Amino acid sequence: xxxxxxxxxxASGRSILVVHGPNLNLLGSREPRxxxxxxLAAINARLAAAxxxxxxxxxxxxxxxxxxxxxxxxxxRAEKVDWIILNPGGLTHTSVALRDALAAVAIPFVEVHxxxxxxxEPFRRHSYFSDLAAGSIVGLGSRGYDLALEYALGxx
Length: 156
Ligand code: CA2
Prior knowledge:
Elements: E1 15-20, H1 32-35, H2 40-53, E2 57-62, H3 66-78, E3 83-87, H4 96-105, E4 109-113, E5 135-138, H5 143-154
Parallel strand pairs: 1-2, 1-3, 3-4, 4-5
């Protein structure tokens, strides 16, 4: 299966969607040793400011519900989103349905994980998304989102 082709638009004018999966709304409140102290709102605000500074548009979405995440990814196609930055949370390791949505919309995406999923429990080592993703960033905390955005904006 061939991967979606990246947008040929310049960074300015590009449209980026950041999708956060289940429980990521809890960031900053619990398990700081694994997931850091930053809140999701702070991460989203930083990404929005970085995108705005480059003339790009950035929307964010978090849900604890698999179907809502699928609906949001499907809507991205009609919205002509150029890149998706995706942290599927625990659905990383379980969701064929969310994977199918990413494959169906054929929007290139970067997979981000705050923690190093390869250095944790064995069940976290497999991702249903990594082989479809343009690339995956794991274990770099919230900085992974910044790097993913930089890539999505810089890529021809
Ligand atoms: O490292 C990541 O970003 C994960 O996607 C986070 C998921 C986990 O299931 C994946 O294996 C790796 C869990 C998100 C839960 O986020 C929390 C944040 C703060 C407090 C509790 C949970």
